[in-house]
């Protein structure tokens, strides 16, 4: 009885793949890639791949103009070209060996929410990157499987398609490389990639998903991180009120307008122009630049930041400039989560910049009074800037079902709501970080030694896409 | 107590870097290098003494930011460095080489672009300089040891601080 429920939940989740693909294809239209960096469509397919079996489903991908014969199994895999506003620009980064595909993105989403990727089967990527908090966790530092907290604040995951150097110190050149650290670090998810691959192999459904995404069902470290990276590259936030303003459909209030002007303007006391000078680093519609700065938190930084990566004295205390999109949701702030509120952040930049040898020159010379050493914004000015920052919240992004936990759709209504997530209950819609269906299944066998096996075919809903997929894969293999 | 010590220490380093003891500051900052790479025959990794030993030029400009007084930058023409690295300058700057660019990156990740041709004296009177001194002293903290000075440009957005690399490339359209 219990098993039947579990199986139903699992296959509901798997069947959702079809729905999610349809949703994705609805938003991620096939558009010509930027000529300077063709992300995937121009990449020749090394061999005919079973990925092309997916368009058998009713997904609109089968109507893709780029795949001329999507119903023929030998056609190259459909590309997944993300759609975003043109004001984001096309300086995106998709590695040549990991083009986005709908199947890869879906697998990545499953893995992002997969607690089996942690040593204690309790943590997933989503434990510290919760959708309702713009993929942060509301904590300064995050406890891992050993309960020892991380040393830096969990970063928000959004608009990563444009980011090349990951982590606060930019040490990982690509999301694929980045994912390895939280997965394997003993103070985070704490499980070797070999163990993760072995555990996934024992969970029904995953081999088929890997085959759909990568052409064969062997589960490897490389494929796991590639799929997660694909999913992360689709996390695009572009529905804030600021986007409405940029697109001419939202009229900002007076406070928002004042805040935006202060944000965008460098102080020029000689000309009587007041400014907060934020845009120098957080400018442009994406609200970040891929840069590293010492923003004056400490005169003698304890954390060396980027200097630990480059070995350069000039990089001491430098950290990446994060995006300010959804900034109201991603407290606490800074690499060490030292500021609990946006007001504290404004107070810092306005009044408490600590001079040190590597302090960003832009902050060193920013002042609203000639010869001054601080922005010294007024209380009203700070409030105005915060009004503008609140415009950057994207309530569509944090509720977007394409980014939500695919494991919990069936079971979330039944899960207990007693868990204390005060902030979540206000904005969140998902029970994050858990995969109840699989968790229950494993706890039956004991969490230390999960021996999940592929369930008999009779459990598969006959009309699910996954069922069709497996049937097709079998016929191809035969 | 401890904070004061740290503050004093960092102030000391600040003074070192800002030129009160330029000789020691240069010795201390041995890690700062300038890479010249890409479409060049001889990729270079230059340190401060290498730049100091090349053909020097200087330019006097009006200050940026709050200080509008005249300032004298000295350093080396970017074209001199590109020629030394074997980029296609001078008589070679024709044909397909006309679609080459020069991408200059800062330690903080900022990057600016010039066309190769606009850095060649046969094409432009404007001299783009890699400066290592301001008014006879090393550049101020955070802006050095090397900075681009493109005299004649209104906005100083291409006057990139803390230059770490110069990459010559083809615009592949």
Helix fraction bin of chain B: 10-25%
Mean pLDDT of chain A: 78
Instruction: Return the average pLDDT of chain B rounded to an integer.
Output: 83
User: CATH H-level name of the largest domain in chain A... which superfamily?
Assistant: Cytochrome c-like domain
Number of E-type strands of chain B: 10
User: Strand order within the widest sheet of chain B?
Assistant: 2-1-10-5-6
Query: Which fold name is given in CATH as the topology of the largest domain in chain A?
Result: Cytochrome Bc1 Complex, Chain D, domain 2
Order of helices and strands of chain B: HHEEHEEHEEEEEE
> What overall geometry of chain A do the principal axes of the alpha carbons give?
globular
Total beta strands of chain A: 4
Keywords:
heterodimer, A: Cytochrome Bc1 Complex, Chain D, domain 2, Cytochrome Bc1 Complex, Chain D, domain 2, two-stranded antiparallel ribbon, disordered N terminus, B: 173 residues, alpha+beta, Sulfite Oxidase, Chain A, domain 2, 2 domains, 5-stranded antiparallel beta sheet, 4 helices, 32% strand, globular
In a few lines, what is going on in this structure?
The complex is a heterodimer of chains A (478) and B (173). Chain A has 478 residues and is mainly α.
Polypeptide structure, described:
The complex is a heterodimer of chains A (478) and B (173). Chain A has 17 helices and four strands. By secondary structure, chain A is mainly α. Chain A folds into two domains: 2-238 and 397-477, Cytochrome Bc1 Complex, Chain D, domain 2 (Orthogonal Bundle); 242-390, Cytochrome c-like domain (Cytochrome Bc1 Complex, Chain D, domain 2), CATH 1.10.760. In chain A, strands 1-2 form a two-stranded antiparallel ribbon. The longest helix of chain A has 26 residues, at 2-27. Mean pLDDT of chain A is 78; it is low at 1-75 and 410-467. Chain B has helices spanning 2-17, 22-28, 48-52, 78-85; strands spanning 34-38, 44-46, 56-62, 70-77, 100-106, 111-115, 128-134, 137-138, 147-150, 163-170. With 173 residues, chain B is an alpha+beta fold. In chain B, the strands form two sheets. Chain B has a five-stranded mixed beta sheet with strand order 2-1-10-5-6. In chain B, strands 3, 4, 7, 8 and 9 form a five-stranded antiparallel beta sheet that branches. The longest helix of chain B has 16 residues, at 2-17. Helices cover 21% and strands 32% of the residues of chain B. Chain A binds chain B through residues 35-36, 165, 170, 269-270, 289-293, 299-300, 310-315, 318, 355-361, 364-365, 367, 370-371, and chain B through 3, 6-7, 9-11, 13-14, 17, 28-29, 31-32, 65-66, 68, 107-110, 140-143, 161-162, 172-173.
